[in-house]
Amino acid sequence: MYYKTLSQEYFEEAEVLKNHIKTLKMFETQCVKVNSKNEDEMRYRISILYGMYLDLIHTGKYLNRKCEVMKNGE
Fold it and tell me: The whole model's pTM is what?
């Protein structure tokens, strides 16, 4: 099947999200300290995106393992 290709796509999307989270964290530490409401919103956004990042990584690893199992089963 296409498990290997799908897992690579998940890992690529996770990398994009990881870079975006890093950017938001830098922005949070540099600019948002002025307003605590904005700081809370930024932390909330980062936590949501981090959960999405973890889902992408776990799904990519699952698909990668599924590919290996399918290859060993043939």
Answer: 0.85
